Amino acid sequence: MSAPDSSKLSLNTATVREKWNLAQAIEGCARHGIRGISPWRDQVAELGLNKAVSLVKSHGLAVTGLCRGGFFTARDWRDDNRRAIEEAHALGAQCLVLVVGGLIPGSKDLPGSREKVKEGIAAILPEARKAGVPLAIEPLHPMQAADRACVNTLKQALDICDALGDGIGVAVDAYHVWWDPELEAQVARAGKKRILAYHICDWLVPTRDLLNDRGMMGDGVIDLPRIRGMVEGAGYAGFHEVEIFSKLDWWQRDPDTVLSTCKDRHARMT
Amino acid sequence: MSAPDSSKLSLNTATVREKWNLAQAIEGCARHGIRGISPWRDQVAELGLNKAVSLVKSHGLAVTGLCRGGFFTARDWRDDNRRAIEEAHALGAQCLVLVVGGLIPGSKDLPGSREKVKEGIAAILPEARKAGVPLAIEPLHPMQAADRACVNTLKQALDICDALGDGIGVAVDAYHVWWDPELEAQVARAGKKRILAYHICDWLVPTRDLLNDRGMMGDGVIDLPRIRGMVEGAGYAGFHEVEIFSKLDWWQRDPDTVLSTCKDRHARMT
Q1: From B218, which residue of chain A is nearest by alpha-carbon distance?
Q2: Domains (ranges, CATH) in chain B?
Q3: Which of A3, A264, B14, B206 places its Cα 20 to 30 Å from the Cα of A77?
């Protein structure tokens, strides 16, 4: 593998959210020469959507995704996803990331919850198409099947895409899919058309928390160059978005150090 | 689903290992009318193999599995698995459970590690056949791919079985496979011939530890009657082995209470 193109680095703001608000993250990216950003909706709301749009624009950043729509098993999914699509449109986001939701609350019905997710995505897709916002289903690691996303493999996500047609694809997050024996085949199946985002970080051994113990690229066991090879081999030429939930480590550090480290590791370890 | 047959309950000794040694667990099972037991090899060694064999026999217990062989990515895998097969034979165990091992130490080569596992299983299978000890590959949850088992789905395990022929099958542990979108199809594929053991416990929400926070049947979100339906529908008529690693809860409790609870929950919640 040749080294990755440094202009493809993007920052998912979750990586620094404990210390920086969205305005600070935007300025930080610009200061470090990071060209892409992927904000979370609560941070956009805090800053104000118009202000967020203008700051992103004035700093010349690409919005590589908006986090997040989804949670189709929750009560208010319809209105919430409608607003998410509008915000993604306003920000010019390359996709709206869908974390689809886990089991229907109070239920153990996994097949039923998966069906509800599929119906929810089908229901919002026309509005997303009209707004020109591609929907990116993000399969989450099976350890989050109960509480965050019952779509847990690329195959599942792509089956939904194939059933629904255009305007929808996947976010491939190395952390969630690296273990999958079908990874290579499913990334190839996804192809340029369906891969809307590529997220990176690393799997730590041991992992001390199911949600918030992700590692910096190079500190764990994921063969990131191999996965980038698959994704680029499938035709994806977009950003590489760093998304690190790390309560015990990176969230405690100075965000400028975090961003320098992301740049260095992206260049050397991915 | 009709209620499960109470004579099918088996105790994996990990469930009470913090408070009971193997002799106590054997006596506890007999006292509670639990007819099957699945011991761990360190406990067998502590008690002495001959003593373990005679205690199991004198209490009339079925040994529903021996935990464990495997770890084919470790250095001493060959001798260790040879000994495990001998012990399983001496105990009359219905299978030797294989926890196959994670990544080759120091490596990020997941496909290579998986290949090494397959070669290791192929290498010990003739000895297992000669000893009359069926090998049960246990696919572990993907969250344990790096450090404990790089076989993470039933499909992977069954592909290995199909490549290797007779004398090998799978241990279906509801905790490890409940999330799998292919579960129903792969359990059916496995059939009576390949399903050598069925393990139960529950997935807690939230799960506070990747290894040792399993729940008692009924306390989590796994639809256990549905999975038993699949397994029995495929022709499996063996034991239902309770295996609960629970540092924060069940390991702290009086083992007699744990066993009563297992019996009650097995009858009502699985």
Answers
A1: A108
A2: 6-269 (3.20.20.150)
A3: B206
